[in-house]
Please model this.
Amino acid sequence: MNKIFRKRLNSHIMEMVKYLRYVFNDFFVIALMFFIGALSLSYSNLLRNLQTNLWWEPLLVIIVILFSVHLGTMVTLIKQPDQVFLTPKEYDFKSYFQAALKYSYLMASLIQFLVWFILLPFMSISFGWKTLYLVFVLILMLLIKFYLLEIEFLQIRRSHPSPLLRKMLFNWIIPIGILGIAFYIGLPTALFLTLVCIFGVTYEKLHQFNVVNWQYVINTEDKRMNRVYRFFSLFTDVPSLPSKLHRRKYLDPLLKPLKKDQKHLFSNLYLRTFIRDNDTSSLYFRLLLVGFVLLVFVNNQILAILISVLFIYLTGIQIIPFFNYFDDNVLIHIYPVNEKIKVKNFRKLLQLLLMIEMLLLLIGMLIAKDSLQTILISIVLWLIEIYFLTVTLLNKKNKN
Amino acid sequence: MSLEVNKLTGGYSSIPVLKNESFDVKDGELVSLIGLNGAGKSTTINHIMGLMTPFSGTIKVNGIQINEDVEKYKQEIAYVPEMPILYPELTLKEHIDTTIMAYNLNYASAWEKAHQLLKTFRLNNKLDWFPANFSKGMRQKVMIVCAFITNAKLFVIDEPFLGLDPLAVNDLLKIIENKKKMGASILMSTHVLDTAEKYCDRFVLLNDGKVNYEGTMTDIKQRYSNYGNSLNDIYLALARNDSHE
Model:
């Protein structure tokens, strides 16, 4: 079983490296360097003016560490088919999950180390601590992380997920207590308490019933991979894992006025999918929000026009692939419905979405008190753009 | 004549899977396509549904070929696929609405039929659920309901008996019987031979993309009298012989 994990880990790392190559492209690296540079400059400015023993300093450190120890979750690399193919080996899975724990802990520890390293100068100034105590903080962070991971791994063999209250207690209240003791009472006491907690969890782990809760393990791992892929999808194409659907019954009234006849078949399908499936709609709303916020804060008139035109274009380009969303569904090809209806219906939807965006951008410009001239020029450009996107481009897409 | 397949040759890319296939389904008839895995049943169905274009030969549904009038041709057929195909983001109610829209059905009367069918298949209390999360048998029932509320002339059902519970199989056969009385015809493919033997009017035995034999149960028994007395025995013997060649 150990071998299986190692093999999976290898291919997982290969995959991650492959995607990271896309992430760290030249543009991003330059942007990142500027970003880090700016951040560290303001951080060092802050440190220069920092005084010792202010009331908010331990509080800030506690909050930072509290979030830091929740970074880096359980990585099991379990896949859906495992629940069929590997269950005969279930009794052997201890070593598999042991290896998974080791890997997860290594990864999480690196994060803890990084956060600790950033906090170092802050702590040494604000608490006036010497090296030994600062190293104690690192050890404390690593121990708490280990405790939290152990709790996560406990869930693997639990037939029912822990109730929320229990989760709150073990994941948040106990760490908060320990950190409070560490920075207000004494570090050694906190270290000792963490060790006690770890012993407690380990004890429970040893006395656990030996049945793997596959559903839980698979769901958690899928969710984790989804998060990873969503991040990478900002930079490149990733395999799409099935995304979660939301019924959103409260939005049904929105669909009421839509006619239910053959001429509106695809309007119904597209709009319902748009509302319930997050893939397209979240993209749209994110673009809407970013465009709006940018316009509110940009004062340069020419820049404002450029930004608004760019965002309408981006939105259109990103939503047009949604046109092909149903192509894999055989039913669509069996219906006695003319292909033209699909194009017409989609065009209506796209126009509607872009009109809403127009309206919002307009409000943004009004808030920013842009000149009338700017607003009029923008509106003309937007309308030309919408025509180009919904007619010229969509027709071209339909022909291919 | 509900369905006429005439000298159909077709397949994927350039390799023909179906070779010169001819058979028909008359009005009010239930015809079964029978053949081993890979014999060409699904490919035949895909051609009839208009999902694939034949290399040569013609397919007529109610006298119309697909290239004469695509919409009219498709209006005449309803399809129940072997693997249920559903919209993950639509509820059961919306699936029925979608079918009504797609086939331009009368809203009230189609829903009346739908309610009846849903009740038969014990789905009437799940109208607001996402059927994509149902079990296979239940998803299949949804497909059956959607197909049988249409006024199609020809119903194409790919392997209806696997995955359905015995009660549902029985109900489906009754529904088919009803449709037959109203003059519609059914073409289905199946591996459940003893059920097929009892209920089908005619059989098309497919082998390697060719029609091996076409006829009623009596015809088949006469022709292959030395192979056995049930469709199952005869078919097993035939299939074994073929694989020995």
Observations:
- The interface with chain B takes residues 242, 245, 247, 260-262, 264-265, 268-269, 272-273, 276-277, 326, 329-331, 333-338 of chain A (CB under 8 Å).
- The CA atoms of residues 79 and 222 of chain A lie 8 Å apart.
